[in-house]
Amino acid sequence: MTKGQPLVLQKLVVARKPSSKVNSTLWRKRAQQLEKTRQLVSGKTESDILLLKASELKRIQPKAKRKLSLLLGLTRRELSPQETLAMKETMNITYH
User: Fold this and answer.
1) For residues 48 and 38, is the Cβ–Cβ distance under 8 A?
2) pTM for this entry
3) CA of residue 79 relative to chain centroid, distance
4) Is residue 35 exposed (0-12), middle (13-18) or buried (19+ Cβ within 10 Å)?
5) How many domains does the chain have?
6) Average of pLDDT values for 65-90?
7) Residues 18-33: pLDDT tens digits?
8) Cβ neighbours around 82 below 10 Å, total
9) Across the chain, how many H-helices and E-strands are there?
10) Residue-range definition of the domain harbouring residue 85
11) Of 17-21, 42-46, 48-52, the least confident
12) Is residue 38 situated within a structural domain?
């Protein structure tokens, strides 16, 4: 039941090749298709789409998150005690 909401049908294309083996043009088209689907599911506003993306990222397993961050070139850096103290001073945080 749709509870009074209009029923929306959408063509779902099944990939014949994995994303790791396609050229950049096809990869871009796939990303655009996913973005269109997100707009239909979440709503038209940018904040609704960002909320949906955030919930998708929260559901990624920790091991996959590490792989994703490496693919994106994101690194995690441990702060030295001196850097931590300087950051606390700058942000006016108490020294507990």
Assistant:
1) no
2) 0.58
3) 26
4) exposed
5) 1
6) 88
7) 988 999 999 899 999 8
8) 8
9) 4, 0
10) 21-91
11) 42-46
12) yes
